[in-house]
Amino acid sequence: MEVGSYQYLLLTYDRVIERFVMTNSTKWSLVDGFANLPGHGDCWNEQVYHTYISNTRHDNRKDIVLLKLHGSIFWYKRKGDDEIFRMPHSSRRDITLENVLLYPAQTKNTLIEPFKTCYDYLGECLANCKVCVVVGHSFRDPYILEKLKYAANKNGRFALLVIDPGNVEGKVLSIGKHCKWVPHKVGFGNIKIGNTLVEFERGLRSLLS
Predict the structure, then answer these.
(1) Alpha helices, H only, the chain
(2) Which of 9, 74, 113, 170 is the one with CA 20 to 30 A from 1?
(3) How far is Cα 192 from Cα 97, in angstroms, rounded to an integer?
């Protein structure tokens, strides 16, 4: 995958980004690791990421490359079957179906699909990006921390813009004392979005300058 579009790496199980793309389909297109397989529906295929090249569209839409590190409530597989497919929760009729999710835990199997590909590209994205915007993350996940620490040590341009309502200094310092970062302290919920965006842009410019 050529890194050059908008990359979103989610730890939540919801479909916020997918819904955004669906309601703005004239402006945005989604790359999420699924491809339509006749007779099977939308099935997981990591080659979607491997063969993706940004900025090759013949229309004016922009791509969002989505990596769901913990899976989704809309991802399923049958017991004993490796095929992973996507379907609305309301369409679930087969009792042998089980969700494809990684639950919060110290031990996670990130060596099986679809998580292996997502975590591999997490490392690649962090190792090559200029700024990683982190929204409401605890920095306690050892698998994520490992990727962040590697990026901070190997990528001289790497910087974090941390959006969080609390004091994040202690969390970020766990990545490494050489990690460049800017806090953006904002409460979630009822906020004045205009002021928040101005402050966000200011923080982003300070990291890119």
Answers:
(1) 16-23, 47-50, 115-128, 142-154, 169-173, 193-208
(2) 74
(3) 43
The Cα–Cα gap between 167 and 56 comes to 41
Chain length of the chain: 209
Q: DSSP class of residue 104? A: S
Task: Compute the distance between CA of residue 125 and CA of residue 7 in angstroms, rounded to an integer.
Answer: 8
- Please state the domain extents for the chain: 6-101, 129-208
Q: How many Cβ atoms from other residues are within 10 Å of residue 10's Cβ? A: 18
Selected residue with higher pLDDT from 207 and 24: 24
| Residue 13 tokens, joined | 């199980």
Q: What is the C-alpha separation between 10 and 194, in angstroms, rounded? A: 24
pLDDT tens, position by position, 59-102: 788 899 999 999 998 999 988 888 999 987 666 677 788 899 99
Q: How many CB atoms lie within 10 A of CB 33?
A: 27
